[in-house]
Amino acid sequence: MLSPQDQLTELVRTLETQQHVFATDPLLITEKLQSEDGTPIQKLHRRASRIDSNGALAGVLGKIDGRIKGIMIVMSVVWCISGFLGLFTLLQTNVVNFFYVLVCLLGFHTVMLLGWLAMTLINQGKQSSNWFASFVSPSYLIRGKDDVTKAAVSLYERQLQHSGMRWYLGRFSHQLWLATLTGMLLAIVFLLIVRQYSFSWESTLLSDQALITLTQILGWLPSMVGFDVPDSTAIAQSRMVTEAMPLSAARQWAGLLVGSLLMYGIVPRAIAWAFCTLMFRRKKMRLDIKQPYYQKILNFWQRHVVDADDFKEAPALVAPKATVSTGKKLVVLLEYPAKQDNWWLGGLDADINDNSEIEDFGIVDDRDDMERLTSYLDKHPVQVLLGVHSNALPDRGTLRKLDRIAKHAADGLIIQLLGDGTLAKDSVQTIANQDIRYQQWQTALAARNIGLVDS
C-alpha cells in the first residue's frame, strides 16, 4: 500500500479533480510552497498536509486503515485461541500416540506451506487472485455518502488491487498460521507443566526399525538447538506403551514434540512471513508524480517571478556533447517504451550501419531491472546509450538511476532524449514545456558530466 503521506497526497488529488472544497485553499498553499525548499515528493506531502489543515482527510484514511488492521489482529487472536483449544482437546489422555499427535500438529500445516511455496514459484511475476480485497473491502468497513469517504474508499480499493498485494496477503496468511502454531505451543507447554504424559508409537504397515529410524531423523534438527530427544533405548521401550513410563524417557519425547513444533512448524513459517514482508516492501506501491496533475504543480513551482530591473540572467548550464565510442554499445530505455524501432540510430553517427556492435537491452524500470542491468555491465565493458523520454522528469529517483548506471558502465554513459512524435492541441504551450524540461535535463547532466546526444 501507499505510505500514509502518499495516501493523503493522492486523496487530495482525487478530491481536487472532483472540485471538492477543502479546509484551506489549495491554490494559496501551492503558491506559498513555490519559494520553499525540498524535493518534489516532500513538497507534495507538505502541500497535502496543509490543505487538510483540520485533519478531516487524514482522519478518514486512518479510520479505514485502523479497521483493516483491527480485523487482522482479531483474526490472529481467534486463530491463536483455536490452536490452543484444538491441542488442549487432543491431549486429554495420559498416554498419547506420538506420531498421531505430530501429524495433527504439523501435517496440514506442512502441506499448506509446501503448496504456498510451489504456487509462489509458479506464479512469479503474475497477478494472483485477491480474495482479501473483497473480504475486507473498505466499503464494508466505513459508511458515508460524503465525497471524502467515497474518495477514500475508492483509493483503498485501488491499493488492494495492486500487484504487490500478493505479498501482503501472503504475509497475512503466514501470520494466521504463526498465531495457530503459537497457540498450540502454549497449550503443549501448559499441559506438560501440569500433567505427566506417556508417549507411545505403533504401526500396522511400517516396521519397528523404520519407525525408530524415522524418530532419529526427526530428532536431528531439534537436538542441534538443544532439545532432548529420545535415544534408541527410549524409542524401543515406547512401543505400544499403555501405562506410565519413566520420567526421563517422557521428558525426551516431550522435548522432541516441542522441538519439532518449533523447528518444523514455527521457524519455517516465520521465514516465509519475513520473505513476504521483504517482497512487499520491494513491490510497495509508490506515488506516481508523472501524472499530469502532479506535473502541473511541479512545473508551477519551477517558475520564478523576478523584477525586470533587477534581473540578471545567469548562463544556462549545458550538458557536454556526447562522444560515441568505437566499441560495443548497449542501448537501454528508461521507464518508457520508444515510439519507433531502432530509436538509437538517430543519435549515432550516420555511417554506423553495423548493428552487431549494438545490443538492445530493453526497458529498465523497477529495481529488478536495475539489478539485471548492473550485473550485465559488470561483466561486459560497453558504452551505454540511455534513451529517456523528453517529458520524463529528472527527479531524484531518476538521477539516482543515472548515477548508478554511469558507475557501472565501463565505457561511459550517454543520454538521448526521445520525443513522443505526436502533435499536441496547444502547440505553443507544449513547445514551452518541452524547452523547460530540456533545460532541466541539460542542467542535471552538466552537473554529472554526462554527455547528451544530438538527436
What do you see in this structure?
It is a single chain. By secondary structure, the protein is of the alpha/beta class. 58% of the residues lie in helices and 7% in strands. The protein contains 16 helices and seven strands. It has helices at residues 4-17, 26-33, 40-51, 56-90, 98-122, 131-135, 138-141, 147-160, 165-194, 208-224, 232-237, 247-282, 292-301, 367-379, 396-408, 427-448; strands at residues 95-97, 198-200, 329-334, 358-364, 383-389, 413-418, 451-452. The protein has a five-stranded parallel beta sheet with strand order 4-3-5-6-7, covered by helices on one side. Helix 15 (396-408) links the parallel strand 5 (383-389) and strand 6. Helix 4 packs across helix 8 (147-160), helix 4 packs across helix 9 (165-194) and helix 9 runs antiparallel to helix 12 (247-282). The longest helix is centred in the middle third of the chain and has 36 residues, at 247-282. It is elongated and about 95 Å long. The relative contact order is 0.09. Mean pLDDT is 83; it is low at 421-429.
